[in-house]
Structures are given as C-alpha cells and as structure tokens.
Amino acid sequence: MTNVTVQAADAEATRELGARLAGVLRAGDLVLLSGALGAGKTTLTQGIGSGLGVRGHVASPTFIIARVHPALGAGPDLVHVDAYRLGSLEEVDALDLDTSLEDSVTVVEWGEGKVEALAEDRLEVEVRRPRGGDDAAGAEELAEESPREIVVRPVGPRWDGVDLAAALRP
Predict the structure, then answer these.
(1) Residue 3, domain member (yes or no)
(2) Boundaries of domain holding 134
(3) Which of 39, 134, 160, 169 could form a disulfide with 35 if both were Cys (CB 3.0 to 4.6 A apart)?
(4) Measured in whole angstroms, how far is the alpha carbon of residue 75 from the centre of its chain?
(5) Along the 170 residues of the chain, how does pLDDT read in single tens digits?
C-alpha cells in the first residue's frame, strides 16, 4: 500500500476531494485527519459528509468533541470527532467511539497518537497548505483560497486492492 498525494486548488476542491473519498468509505472505516490549524481538515470532512449523504451541516466539533450526522439514505452515518482538546487515551475511551465504529464512518481531526488503537485498518490523511495570514481574517481568507496538498496513507488489510489514486482523481 502506498501513499496517495493529491493537490486541491482551494476549499471547494478540497470538499470535492472529500466527496470522492467518501465513495470508497464504508461503515466501520476510521479516517484520521492531521494538519495545521486552518489547513482544511473540517473542509475535507464537509466533502466526506456530502459524499456520504448525511444530514446536517458538517462543522468543526471542537467544543462538543463529537457529532453524529445520520445518513439520509441507506449509507453509514458520519461520526465527526475533534480530538484537539483530548489529552489522553482514557478521554478518547470515554467517548465510546468503538460502540458506533462498526456502523459509521468515523472521521477524527487531531487524532494522531490518540485513536489508532480503535481500528487496525484506517486512513491517515494529512492536509497541508501554505503558511501566511497574520490575523484571523487573513488566515481564514488563506484557508478558503489557498491550495492544499493532501496525503492519504492507507493502513491495514482493509485497503489492500483499493485503488485510492483512481478514486481520488477528479
């Protein structure tokens, strides 16, 4: 299994990439998102939610930690987690993510080093973007308009034989 690196020109292209990624996701899949603050992790998750056809606006669950977006059709629900404020594996365990893992697609922002034990199989996705914007408004504008490099790393036998490069190609 090899990493797949994809370029996204802006926020909309990042959402479209997320929707394409949703096309290979199924119930039980765990997706770990990493990247700097404002890189586009939630933007990518919005695309995944759109591609899965789930209910509700996908927004960063920073203050509520985890949000469930029920499927509108026959597909899996989306569980969107922000592990930024979680400091230990015990705090992750308290969320009981493993109870919904088999029935949902679970996307965890800032999950590196915290949730890998939840599943042998997962996608580790790093979202990179250029630095810049000294104030919040500048950073937000940069986040919407700047290109991103998205590196998808498949882990575990679930991804054997899945052509991620083809699935993520526009």
Answers:
(1) no
(2) 10-157
(3) 39
(4) 17
(5) 799 999 999 999 999 999 999 999 999 999 999 999 889 999 999 999 999 999 988 987 766 677 888 999 989 999 998 888 776 666 666 665 665 678 899 999 988 887 887 889 999 999 998 765 444 444 444 555 789 999 999 999 999 999 999 999 98
Tokens representing residue 83 in the block: 């592990």
Question: Rounded to two decimals, what is the model's pTM?
Answer: 0.86
> Does a structural domain hold residue 162?
no
The single-letter code of the amino acid at 64 is I
The answer to whether residue 73 is domain-embedded is: yes
Q: Where are the beta strands (DSSP E) in the chain?
A: 4-8, 30-34, 66-69, 77-82, 104-109, 122-128, 148-155
Number of domains in the chain: 1
- Report the CATH number at residue 57: 3.40.50.300
**Could you give the CA distance from residue 70 to residue 79 in angstroms, rounded to a whole number?**
8
